[in-house]
């Protein structure tokens, strides 16, 4: 596939040439993905450019306060793609976790715009803006859009939400001075960090509290290797009536363990469908570990999906990871 690296000054001009636009992101979208699709949609609305956000699943309830129901549609018919001149894919390292997965990109006449910050991004777009130095896709979008075009306050709020959720409210190493400069710019647009923290982070429901409690109570330590892990069988998902997105932020919690080099959370989101999330404090590169199973992400935050029997797969994964990272040298 032909790929072009494009500079920022023609980003909006290029999008404007390819309306109506379709805006999509990866399945099980996190705060950055949600902030990116709706921040861009709100921006395009404000500048009278036609676009549609298409989702394949309902959004985690934590984000309800920030999103308008009129701003998205659910995917009903995959042939719908053909009516869009451009498809903007946000925060996705490849198309396998998006609604484009069943569609060979060569079969669509739509132009694909790939905007992302995953180091594992495979540059699937016709145009690619992929920069692992961005703390978040939302930070990247602000960089691409800020300039002479006005940034509406609603977009600023959504982009700031994405930056904050992807950086642990600016506490993670990915949030450097460049990120703080963008945050300051958004702050000057009238949006507040504490308001976003209250509406997204301090918004867990009782079922989520129980899910987190279950995973934390049952966590296990492999102290020789500096690994802390927990697993959530599918039965817990049905008993507590929780969804995939209800554990967002949970694996980061395990990184709080003093002697953690690597935190692993394995969730059986559907019978025999296992989502594995990996986090590290920096010494271990979890992106390269996740790539063993076809996943990816960032050096300190990555994941992959695998199928099989939970405990068997978990043991296999832990054995391979232990072999790769070795024992702690303390
Ligand atoms: Mn992201």
TrEMBL record:
Keywords: Hydrolase
GO molecular function: hydrolase activity; nucleic acid binding
UniProt-listed InterPro entries: DDH_dom, DHH_sf, DHHA1_dom, Oligoribo/pAp-PDE_c-di-AMP_PDE
Domain spans labelled DDH: 22-163
Alphabetized Pfam families for the sequence: DHH (PF01368), DHHA1 (PF02272)
The protein's enzyme class: hydrolase
Residue span(s) of domain DHHA1: 236-322
Keyword Zinc: no
EC number, UniProt record: 3.1.-.-
Transmembrane segments: none
Protein name: Bifunctional oligoribonuclease and PAP phosphatase NrnA
Species annotation: Psychracetigena formicireducens
């Amino acid at each position: 596939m032909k790929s072009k690296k494009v500079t920022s000054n023609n980003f909006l001009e290029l999008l404007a040439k390819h309306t109506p636009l379709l805006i999509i992101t990866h399945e099980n979208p996190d705060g950055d993905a949600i902030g990116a699709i709706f921040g861009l949609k709100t921006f395009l609305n404000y500048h009278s450019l036609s676009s549609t956000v298409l989702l394949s699943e309902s959004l985690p309830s934590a984000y309800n306060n920030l999103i308008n129901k009129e701003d998205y549609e659910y995917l009903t018919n995959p042939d719908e793609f053909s009516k869009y001149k451009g498809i903007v894919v946000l925060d996705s390292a490849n198309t396998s976790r998006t609604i484009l997965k069943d569609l060979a990109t060569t079969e669509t006449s739509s132009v694909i715009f790939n905007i992302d910050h995953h180091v594992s991004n495979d540059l699937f777009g016709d145009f690619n803006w992929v920069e692992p130095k961005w703390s978040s896709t939302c930070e990247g979008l602000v960089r691409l859009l800020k300039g002479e075009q006005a940034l509406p306050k609603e977009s600023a709020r959504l982009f700031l939400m994405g930056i904050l959720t992807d950086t642990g409210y600016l506490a993670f190493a990915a949030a450097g001075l460049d990120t703080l400069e963008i945050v300051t710019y958004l702050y000057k647009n009238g949006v507040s960090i504490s308001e976003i923290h209250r509406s997204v982070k301090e918004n867990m429901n009782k079922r989520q509290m129980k899910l987190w409690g279950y995973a934390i109570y049952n966590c296990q330590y492999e102290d020789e290797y500096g690994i802390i892990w927990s697993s959530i069988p599918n039965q817990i998902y049905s008993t507590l009536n929780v969804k995939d997105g209800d554990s967002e932020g949970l694996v980061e919690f395990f990184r709080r363990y003093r002697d953690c080099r690597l935190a692993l959370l394995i969730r059986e989101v559907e019978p025999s469908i296992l989502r594995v999330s990996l986090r590290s404090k920096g010494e271990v590169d979890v992106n390269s570990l996740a790539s063993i199973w076809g996943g990816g992400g960032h050096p300190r935050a990555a994941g992959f999906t695998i199928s099989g029997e939970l405990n068997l797969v978990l043991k296999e994964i832990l054995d391979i990871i232990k072999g790769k990272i070795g024992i702690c040298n303390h």
